[in-house]
Protein: PAR1 protein
Organism: Salvia splendens
Amino acid sequence: MASATKISLLIFFASSLLTQGILGELICENLPTNLCAFAIATSGKRCVLENYRNEEGSVEYTCKTSEVVVERMSGYIETDQCVKACGVDRGFVGISSDAFLAPEFTASLCSPSCYQNCPNIVDLYFNLAAGEGVFLPALCEKQKTNPHRAMLELLSNGGAVGGAAPGPVAADYVVDAPAPAPAPGYF
């Protein structure tokens, strides 16, 4: 009987640790740098990888909480599968809309494995695109049918690709302003 009690206590202890971990807060500053980029704190704010020079002059990295709020997600660390499928890198320091100028990036972001399965990354780039006057679903549609034309239109129109969404001026991070709803079949 004592053995059954010990097993019960052990199970209770293990489950309490698991519950505490599940209910614990995700704080950007507590994340290791290799999990920082594309994570969202429990507060709903995006985590951002930053670099700085230490006292010896070497570059080091730290995870910080940005002011960018994600309305539909919190306490989330992006999966390795999504990082790979979307063509992003956890080593990114800051995020920029310049990524759209690389056809390989846009193809990865618009691929079904990313666009339909990775709402955190798609949401981030949806807002960055909107800040440039680009409606991401329209860009992805053009990417599917004619990737070269999509890139040419993006460059020649100063960013506007069919159905441009109003949005704030682009910055390294665009605060999640009310964005137009994505087209059906996306997200």
